[in-house]
């Protein structure tokens, strides 16, 4: 069948590749350069499996900027457009989703619309009423950056916010494209599926915040953070995962999803403490990192990479940006980021010469250690204990 994917970020492109193994897939994007890359089978995002599939797999995949070409004849339209959190409205910016829905209804009202963008709790039912269009349901994604196709091929679970025959067909399309043989499958209502997504990511953010606060305690008390973490993680109820300290959680999902969940609580006057504490804890951690660096009295602080974690090509909401803002009034900040296109932050010097970067900085901040830093590790300030995540 023909399936259209609106948006070719890591969610949209991984879905497109997964489904294009067995279906005719059209990927729609507003950026001609991305469309051209996809049609030339060059991945516009850093994802090993997508690149390998582009080189080695026969995919029924075409990309276009033409809405009519994309939507006409499609049985399913998967919406994977970005929804950034707007701190002014305390709400995800869902205009891109509504634009897609409006276009689909205008061009191909027979299509079923599947939302895979992250949305507020209660959004899908509201938007169905707004457009007076019932064939819309939400399917949350649980994908890691840099591992989006891998996680689509080997999903931990498939959750569909609808219990109709069309929902069952779509779940089977995802399952048929996957390599994993046994995949837990759960059909819920839309609002419960939306809650699953936000609560899952908020739990992960809370876990990151917990180990970061543990690490703050250990550093201030001059204790061995690694020993403490390894000791408590031997408890099988806690487990040895998602436990590597950092400068704070960042990226596409955790910062905005925790804030949106908090907004859902606040707007409806639902009692809570943990979600607010998780959001506040991330700010506290970044303040602690900045303070620890300034106590060393550096004249120039180097920042090694802006990416939120190793294996990512994403700068969005990296914790290091807030740390840099806290440092800038008190010291010079120099950034080494090969993927940056220029001086993207006022008052911050970007350099592409690694030797110049290491020679002209007194201390180097690295959210995650890298083999390139081994020769100057005496200058490196990091809270990376396990060299992963």
Explain what you see.
The protein is about 40% helix and about 15% strand. It has a six-stranded parallel beta sheet with strand order 3-2-1-4-7-8, sandwiched between helices. It has a five-stranded parallel beta sheet with strand order 13-12-11-14-15. A two-stranded antiparallel ribbon has the order 5-6. It contains 14 helices and 15 strands. Helix 9 crosses helix 10 (about 225-235) and helix 12 crosses helix 13 (about 320-325). About 40% of the residues are buried. The chain has two domains: about 1-190, NAD(P)-binding Rossmann-like Domain (Rossmann fold, 3-Layer(aba) Sandwich); about 245-380, NAD(P)-binding Rossmann-like Domain (Rossmann fold, 3-Layer(aba) Sandwich), CATH 3.40.50.720. The radius of gyration is 22 Å and the shape is globular. It is of the alpha/beta class.
